[in-house]
Amino acid sequence: MKTVYKKPACLGVRKRNSFCPGCMHSIASRLVAEVLEEMDLVDNSVMIAGIGCGGNASFGYIDMDVGKAPHGRACALASAYKRCNPDELVFTYQGDGDLAAIGFAETMHAANRGENFSVIFINNALYGMTGGQLAPTTLEGMVTTTSPAGRGNNGEGYPMNVCELINCFKAPAYIARGTCTDPKNVRKTKEYIRKAFQNQLDGKGFSIVEIVSACPSDWHMSPKQCIDFINEKMLPEYPLGEFRSR
Amino acid sequence: MEKEFMKGCEAVAEAAVRAGCRFFAGYPITPQNQVPEYLAHRLPEVGGVFIQGESEVASINMVYGASYGGTRSLISSSSCGMSLMSETIGWAISAEMPIVLFNFQRGGPGIGDIGPSQQDYFQATKAHANGGGRMLVYSPASLQEAVDIVYESFEIAESYRSPVYILMDGITGGMMESVELPEMRPEDYIAEKKAAIKKEWGLGGKQGRIGRTIMGGDFSGIPLQTLNQKLEKKYLKMEENETRCELYLTEDAEWIVTAYGIGARFAKAAVNRLRADGIKAGLVRPISLYPFPFEAYDALDYTKVKGVVSAEMSIPPQFITDVKLAVKERAPICIYNTSGGVILDSIEIEKMVREMAGKEA
Amino acid sequence: MGKGKVIVDADWCKSCGYCLMVCPKGVLGVSGDVNRFGYRYVSPLKPEECIGCGLCATMCPDIAIEVYKED
């Protein structure tokens, strides 16, 4: 019997994950572990983990070295860590609040400096860990615990398109946005992650992969409904694909 | 030992490089701009990394990130900049990261002004971040002392796995004095230290061992209490071994002047003139502000000491709270303090002692 | 067509249902049982139909599924 799929050896060995059922952070973390293993990088890589649901994978679910970053500051830590340890693969793993709200400056400036690390950015349109508050990526009209009348009715502004923003900078080498709504997209997202890591090994500079993700608990939807919501509402606002690939 | 005539900011920056510092991140803010300016060209010369962060928030997080991998890291700023770093200073204490910080105090609160002051005493020694963590705080009074302490601080930081905070100000940052510069740490020594950290507790890719997670805190309940108990033991050890104070002419002193950092230079001038005039004055100069040298004040002979003048550049006064704790009402204390860039005047200190002595006589 | 085999680790399944949405042969289904975490875990109800395509494992957020295929 040929193995079609077996979980990566570095995943779920030391600790389980505590993601909610259907959480796509969980798929993203799995993809990161799969790519690291397939590229034989698990032993020589460091995750700089943001604060939030994504941090869930950084306490041993993926058995690797992890440096937690104060909320929003992962790209600053990663900039310094990578420059001081250029032979190690360094990537940040952040949610939308971490990367695009409190960490907006750190993210944009690391991108603009062209720092040679990779960013895994999970966009689930709200703050998951803290119970579903408004995030920079919350959709127009979307109700969250801090936009009860729906985004836009109380001066909350518009959804923030991070890839498009970073695409304005000259330095970044790779900008892509994927999702995990079906096997085809999961495989494409995995390929984007691989490229983001390979770019780093080739010294090409800043790479970011945004992953449009479901948050069943705080969207108050079943996983199936989440996939429909992504296809119908999220993807029109967050078009998929590679914005830049040097 | 090379002798150089240097500006404070540059002297301590050079001392850090010689001590093995190979990463600096900082942000422009007067009166410490010469630190990043100096290191911008100096660090690359020794194969180090310099980044001007987009803010002090970003910069402290860069320094913190670099320390995860065992690189000797430094940040420099001034008062308001230090406030922007608070959260991550707390993380560095909790995660036990050996980073070194310079604070060249300026007028405060708020944007204050760009003149020198000692208005950050509480922030530096009591509450630089949430959570009540402690770290070593030294306040040098001369550029030679600053160079020596900075050179040592990278070793102390690593031996305690604790941040070390050098509290200076606009004067010590901007004045020039001749300093003897210590030897440059050899490259293999620096590399060994980094490798040892990566092996023992730092990050480096797990290289076959079990993966490590470093965080400033612990979410799993009891272990956070255990962490804080461990940190408390460390603080007690610091108090035992790292307390530093200068006692100048205090054995037979009747009038004690106490001040720290640049303030003590004014105080010493006053003490010398009083002594020349037959008035038995002495100086108690804390060098470590955490741990505060309470024993130095216990060592005074209160059968002789008739009064204390506490001098600092802070209105309202802050240093005085520790002085009162130390003196324990064994002698009357007068306060002489200036603020907002107005620097102390040794004649005023002298006058205050003479008034106390006059009343006494 | 090679014959496939899917194994679901009941202890890891959180019954999110992603695998059910993508299995082309309707092999998997919610079992009548509950694991220790209270999730109605998925299991291969029609194992003989499995063609070993692996789409279920591609979607599984919780690495609960292993897939094999005869050469």
What is this structure, in a nutshell?
Chain B contains 14 helices and 16 strands.
What does this 3D model show about the protein?
The complex is a heterotrimer of chains A (246), B (361) and C (71). Helices cover 35% and strands 19% of the residues of chain A. Chain A is of the alpha/beta class and 246 residues long. A 7-stranded mixed sheet of chain A has the order 3-2-4-5-9-8-10, with helices on both faces. In chain A, strands 6-7 form a two-stranded antiparallel sheet. The model of chain A has no long low-confidence stretch (mean pLDDT 97). Chain B has 2 domains: 3-241, Thiamin diphosphate (ThDP)-binding fold, Pyr/PP domains (Rossmann fold, 3-Layer(aba) Sandwich), CATH 3.40.50; 246-360, Rossmann fold (3-Layer(aba) Sandwich), CATH 3.40.50. In chain B, helix 13 links the parallel strand 15 (307-312) and strand 16. In chain B, helix 3 runs parallel beside helix 5 (86-94) and helix 11 crosses helix 14 (346-360). The model of chain B has no long low-confidence stretch (mean pLDDT 97). Chain C has a two-stranded antiparallel ribbon. A two-stranded antiparallel sheet of chain C has the order 2-3. Chain C is α+β, with helices and mostly antiparallel strands. The longest helix of chain C has 5 residues, at 18-22. The interface between A and B is large, with 36 and 38 residues. Strand 1 (2-5) of chain A pairs antiparallel with strand 4 of chain C.
List keywords for this structure.
heterotrimer, A: 246 residues, alpha/beta, Rossmann fold, seven-stranded mixed β-sheet, two-stranded antiparallel ribbon, globular, C: 71 residues, alpha+beta, Alpha-Beta Plaits, two-stranded antiparallel sheet
What overall geometry of chain C do the principal axes of the alpha carbons give? globular
CATH topology of chain A: Rossmann fold
Q: Look at the structure and give the mean pLDDT of chain C.
A: 96
Sheet having the most strands of chain A? 7 strands, mixed
Question: Helix and strand string of chain A, N-terminal first?
Answer: EHEEHEHHEEEHEHEHHE
Instruction: Tell me the β content of chain A.
Output: 15-25%
CATH C-level label of chain A: Alpha Beta
State the total count of DSSP E strands of chain C.
Answer: 4
CATH class of chain C: Alpha Beta
Q: Helix/strand/pairing class of chain C, anyone?
A: alpha+beta
**Largest interface (CB < 8 Å):** A-B, 36 and 38 residues
Distance between the termini of chain A: 40 Å
Instruction: Tell me the count of domains of chain A.
Output: 1
Strand content bin of chain C: 15-25%
Q: Tell me, what's the shape of chain A?
A: globular
Number of strands of chain A: 10
